[in-house]
Amino acid sequence: MPDSRATRSDERTGTILRAALELAREVGYAKLSIEAVAARAGVGKHTVYRRWSSRGLLFLDAVLSLDTGGLAHRDTGDVVADVREVMVKAVDLLGRPPWGPLYQDLVGEAQHDPEVAAALNRRFIEPQTADTLARLRSAKEQGQLAPDFDLDLAFDILSGPLYFRLLITQEPLTHDYIDRLIRALFAGMSPRPDNAAANGSR
Amino acid sequence: MPDSRATRSDERTGTILRAALELAREVGYAKLSIEAVAARAGVGKHTVYRRWSSRGLLFLDAVLSLDTGGLAHRDTGDVVADVREVMVKAVDLLGRPPWGPLYQDLVGEAQHDPEVAAALNRRFIEPQTADTLARLRSAKEQGQLAPDFDLDLAFDILSGPLYFRLLITQEPLTHDYIDRLIRALFAGMSPRPDNAAANGSR
Q1: Which residues contact B64 (CB under 8 A, 6 or more apart)?
Q2: A40 within 8 A of A19, measured Cβ to Cβ
Q3: C-alpha distance from A118 to closest chain B C-alpha (Å)
Q4: Which chain A residues touch B117 with a CB distance below 8 Å?
Q5: Which residue of A has its CA nearest to B146?
Q6: Topology classification of domain A4-64
Q7: Mind listing the GO molecular function terms for this protein (chains A, B) (predicted)?
Q8: Which CATH superfamily groups domain A79-190?
Q9: Per-residue model confidence as pLDDT tens digits over A8-36
Q10: A146-158 confidence digits (pLDDT tens)
């Protein structure tokens, strides 16, 4: 039989996280307060503070409690297709409510709160980086990537432009953007010697 | 002769912006208030509100009033060197106080405040994008870039990984990182046909 005290505590945690998400969507993260979350969840504010030492850490747990639909790479043997699949899922997540705006607020908070920044990396960014790295390492071993490609940069290169669009230019994240990015990142900016030769011979 | 009323107004604006920067560095942006800035500048809070409708827009003006040392591309004829020069200047700016932490707070604020996001793009990001585009367009015309390289992606590709490191992983921004990025972005992730042939023949 489950420990009923632990179950009640888990249920209460779930209620508080759902209340935080509801309120963040209603009033915006800037106006979210622990007091208001506690009132919405029907608990005392000390119940919230016992679990989360700051509004930012509560919000982090709330956002990361949402289903991301899975951002793990498959290995179909075609690295470009497998990378594209995950990037398309990522833009569908980042570019739309509820996840997109909530995640944007979370990253905003991480700029002022080092604890939120550290927890976001440990719980969300690092697992994705490791998964991407594993997929690309296998592709490299199969000769599908440039033999000197710097794998440690891979996640920065693939996701940096997405984050740039999400956080800086705030232009829409589309499947077309992903297709263009993948084409450019795989091909590289320099002329290919074979292309140059082909162009020269025309 | 200069209009002395306009000069006094400019001086007052400068005093307020300096007060905002001093306070942001002392107490952090999260605790910055218009009241405190007004008190530090020795003016009434309505004097501040007459010029800036929000704390975020005041902070934007304050950060953008700092000298960035110039982020325009030279055209020495070597596109890789010219791009590297600007990226190195950018990481020196973004990776160190005072600019780095202040800019990070500004981007954080842009996540919650659409007016700040729009002004940041119009006044800081768009001019840099245009300058980068002009340099790369000239390189493309001279055959130093892949003939099918998607110029509209160039700024996202070059700066996205920097912003990713600054805002997400918060790992140090170094010259070595720039060198590795430039190498990877110019070469591309796919094997080069000539390399593949060379590897195959060994």
Answers
A1: B123, B124
A2: yes
A3: 8
A4: 170
A5: A191
A6: Arc Repressor Mutant, subunit A (1.10.10)
A7: DNA-binding transcription factor activity; transcription cis-regulatory region binding
A8: Tetracycline Repressor, domain 2 (1.10.357.10)
A9: 888 999 999 999 999 999 999 989 999 99
A10: 999 999 999 999 9
